[in-house]
């Protein structure tokens, strides 16, 4: 019997997978010292961004049961 693969829990908490299979991430350094940053940059960083293709390939290996 083949063993199940383990999901990398840290990545699964940081990455959201869309219905079409795209991987979305958040911008970094946004919760720390937030009031000192410009409101424009804070709003821009609140959105979700698509992961780069090279990174997405590596992340998919860590999320074996994520939708493809």
Automatic annotation (TrEMBL):
Descriptive protein name: Large ribosomal subunit protein bL35
GO-annotated biological processes: translation
GO molecular function, one term: structural constituent of ribosome
HAMAP family for the chain: Ribosomal_bL35
Top-level division of the source organism's lineage: Bacteria
Entries under Pfam families matching the protein: Ribosomal_L35p (PF01632)
UniProtKB keywords: Ribonucleoprotein, Ribosomal protein
Similarity annotation: Belongs to the bacterial ribosomal protein bL35 family.
SUPFAM superfamilies, alphabetized: L35p-like (SSF143034)
PANTHER family xrefs: 54S RIBOSOMAL PROTEIN BL35M (PTHR33343), LARGE RIBOSOMAL SUBUNIT PROTEIN BL35M (PTHR33343:SF1)
GO cellular component: large ribosomal subunit
Ribosomal protein is among the record's keywords: yes
